[in-house]
User: Fold this.
Amino acid sequence: MSEPAAGTVSDPTEDVPRNVVVISHAVREDAFDAAGEFIAAMDQRGISSVVLADQRDALQTRVPGVPLTTIDPSISDPQSLRIEVVIVFGGDGTILRAAEWALPRHVPMLGVNLGHVGFLAELERSDMSSLVRQVCDRDYTVEDRLVLEVRVTDHAGREHWRSFAVNEMSLEKASRRRMLDVLASVDGLPVQRWSCDGILVSTPTGSTAYAFSAGGPVMWPDVEAMLMLPLSAHALFARPLVMSPNARVDLDVQPDGTDAAVLWCDGRRSCEVRPGERVTVVRHDARLRIARLAEQPFTSRLVKKFALPVDGWRQGQGRG
Assistant:
């Protein structure tokens, strides 16, 4: 049985107009084609599609007779606009873009994978008929994922930048000529001062992204934890650290350095961090809501996405 999305219609018999947001990969024609096919199918069933303002023209050409409502992520939505779910056509990068709109509104996202690995996406392009049917029937469940809140403050404690991170926060050196000198603390207690290329703080969702490439462990998405991982640290102890989801991580860029660092959230939002400034990472108040059409264990997705060899020597043998 499906879980009603926050702020949407909870009673399928209630006579209220139904709306879904449709977001496509920014440039891929096959993504716009798939999104147009979905929008047309929704319109035939009396469900309206809402699209990003900068994608309206590309989508309207594919559904010329279908009215499209537009939203602009930079401004507030009309109060009358009630959204059930966000359907995303693309890879995980497109889903991360869609999260910038969906996260603060507590609306679940459902991804159709047109990328490569795509851990956040739920189904493939060939599953369009199932997607249309189950969205119409509200036949999906919703997973809530841990999200990070990231703040940058100066030496006096004044905040000058804030963002969220679905996958990870990465603090990286800005110059190839020098290493980044950072003191890492957890819950106000120093852990280690690293000279390194950078430091990641990742969610379980992000453990299969940048953190995985950097040698971090894979965490199942329902694990409540935060992961800290130094990048190419010049140190004897430079292991990934799995911490409480309620931990507070402080990364102090040492004031005796001459080069600034660059902070990235999900590889999409960035700011400069100067020597003497602090990056603080905590659990975000909001949760990322991922819609699932079927009960597919994360183990199965992991094996499929990474093409893991699972045919052991016992394959085809009896267990007696």
User: Anything to note?
Assistant: The helical segments are 29-44, 56-60, 92-102, 128-136, 210-213, 298-305.
